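Quick one, T. Sequence first:
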Amino acid sequence: MSLLDVKPYDLQLYREELADFLPDTFIDCHTHVWLDSHFIKGAESNDRSCAWPNMVAPDNSVEDLNETNRLLFPDKKVISVLYGQPVVTIDLEVNNSYVAQKAEQYGFPALYISHPSQSAEELERKVLEHSCFKGLKVYLQFAPSYIPNNEIRIYDFLPHEHLALANKHGWIVQLHIARPRRLADPVNYVQIREIEEKYPDLQLIVAHLGRAYADEDLGDALPYLKDMKKTVWDFTANTNQFVMERVLEMVGPDRFVYGTDFPIFRMKSRRTVENGFYINEIPQGSLGDVSSDPHMREIPYPEAEKISFFIYEEILSCKRACKALGLGKSEVEKIFYSTSAKLFGVK
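Structure tokens:
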């Protein structure tokens, strides 16, 4: 049985819209890999992230990740940046070790998932144990439990001693921000700029374009951030052409990079936004019971047959943004390969 249900419609969409747009080799800067055995038996989850991503896949081995890319991008070479699954129910020690093992096996770069409770000494030792680790992946799930979800700040899960360590070594720090207003929240965009100014030798990557999935999620952030010189933005799991255009106008293709959030964006889905709230429209029955998640909406057949892979929608949105801004093949190559190659030391 194939890992993915690739239908003739999907292949036609890929060949007609994406194959010529994508470089022959490209880098995915944002992938999660883990095995079911990495979970801690009896551990309780928290409610600090959306439920729907957990419906897509119970695990994602590196072999499954490679097969996903083979099926979705035939005749292309994809270099994946690996890291684990940032949830409180997983054994980070085991998961990070698996990532290191597989990154070294396949020659992929990787990021180490850090926990804010780690001492700088422990974190430094763990990252430097493996040359594949190019820095840190940090996540809001690990903020102290006493902090209400709506009040989590960047420094609650990315403490200053970790930032100082990353600055010392020139590490990458890939940041998934919190808070209901996402990038539009002044707490987030002030702290993003503050990190670049206080820690100039680390390389900050803002994941998901600051989780600005709706136009409203930008707020007043970009005028405040426009003078930043170094921070990179990945458009992983974002399908908003307007947001892509605005960020591209601000930073250019040298600081704008591609990622998938695999296995999540291997699902079949398309996204719509209603009153500033994003909704993923999926084929009816494709992910089981999704009625409890307001971000999910089932589309009945035969209309559902028009829904292809979510990652195709993401890339199509980027293609349209590039076209609207008059960007050509050389700029697209930077977005999908060269910028990430420099960041992660891919040769």
